[in-house]
Amino acid sequence: MSQADYTPMFAALCREVGFCLHPKGEKRVLEALPNGLDAATRAVFDAEGVDFASARGDLRRAVRDCLKANLPGTAA
């Protein structure tokens, strides 16, 4: 089984939403992905030091939608 390339997903997250994660933050998101998009979205906010609960709903939705649209192996 080959490792998926998540570089485009993280590049899109940086470009489209403004969350440019460092390698340790990317690792947190990748570890959360098996638990679903909601867990990965929360991990993005945690990695950026942004309080998920107080973040605007449209920002949370934008991060989740960006992750979903750019997951390796998904058709956009």
Low-confidence stretches: none
* Euclidean distance between termini CA atoms: 23 Å
How many strands appear in the DSSP assignment? 0
The number of distinct helices, counting runs of at least 4 residues, comes to 4
- The proportion of residues forming helix, as a percent range, comes to 55-70%
Overall pLDDT: 92
Using the alpha-carbon principal axes, give the shape. globular
Main beta sheet? none
Q: How large, in whole angstroms, is the Cα Rg?
A: 11 Å
Tell me the structural class: mainly alpha
Percentage of β-strand residues: under 5%
Series of secondary-structure elements, N-terminal to C-terminal: HHHH
Keywords:
mainly alpha, single chain, 4 helices, 62% helix, 76 residues
Describe this structure in words.
62% of the residues lie in helices and 0% in strands. It has four helices and no strands. Helix 1 (7-17) packs antiparallel against helix 4 and helix 3 packs across helix 4 (57-70). It is globular, with a radius of gyration of 11 Å. The mean pLDDT is 92.
SSE blueprint and pairings:
Blueprint: H1 7-17, H2 23-32, H3 37-48, H4 57-70
Give a concise summary.
62% of the residues lie in helices and 0% in strands.
